[in-house]
Specification:
There is one protein chain. The protein has a single domain, classed as Beta Barrel (Small Protein B, Chain: A), CATH 2.40.280.10. It is 31% helix and 37% strand. It has helices at residues 16-19, 34-41, 89-101, 130-151, and strands at residues 7-12, 20-30, 45-46, 51-55, 58-62, 65-66, 83-86, 105-114, 117-127. Strands 1-8-9-2-7-5-4 form a 7-stranded antiparallel sheet. A two-stranded antiparallel ribbon has the order 3-6. A hairpin with a 2-residue loop joins strand 8 and strand 9 (117-127). The longest helix is centred in the C-terminal third of the chain and has 22 residues, at 130-151. It is globular. The termini are far apart.
């Protein structure tokens, strides 16, 4: 299999499913500089508080931290800058309407290489209440305990 035809996971937003009920998924390109790509290849990405902001007909990824690349020299980058997302106009309009009207947020769930390009998977999510988060944790613990008992 060719290296450029396979898609490989770079990073995953592990807390997205904990804090949000994820409804729809969409894939977008992201506008990056050279030192950012090298830092991403070295696993220098953190999704902690990242979300998508719509401004002037464009989408920007806010809160994504890409660590500075050690060998960047004078051409480094700002680790916390807003990064433009590359989406088709129709997709942009639909997502902007859904997030503004229905109280949904657009959250990055993972980042991966696809045919030599870096892609970000975004999900429309509705924030979970604290009791919903607790219910999910309780269900996961019960499932884990049941599997453990079945193995015995």
């Amino acid at each position: 299999m060719n290296q450029h035809s396979a898609s490989s996971l770079i990073a995953r937003n592990k807390k997205a499913r904990h804090f949000y009920e994820l409804l729809e998924f969409v894939e977008a390109g992201i506008l990056l500089g050279g030192s950012e790509v090298k830092s991403i290849r070295a696993n220098g990405v953190n999704f902690r508080d990242a979300y998508v902001l719509f401004r002037q007909g464009e989408a920007f990824l806010v809160g994504l931290h890409i660590a500075p690349y050690a060998n960047a020299g004078y051409a480094g980058h700002d680790p916390d800058r807003e990064r433009k997302l590359l989406l088709h106009r129709r997709e942009l309009n639909i997502l902007a309407e859904k997030t503004s009207r229905k109280g949904l947020a657009l959250i990055p769930t993972n980042m991966r290489f696809s045919r030599g390009k870096i892609k970000v998977e975004l999900a429309l999510g509705r924030g979970k209440k604290l009791h919903d988060q607790r219910d999910d944790l309780k269900a996961a613990a019960e499932l884990r305990d049941a599997r453990r008992e079945m193995e015995r």
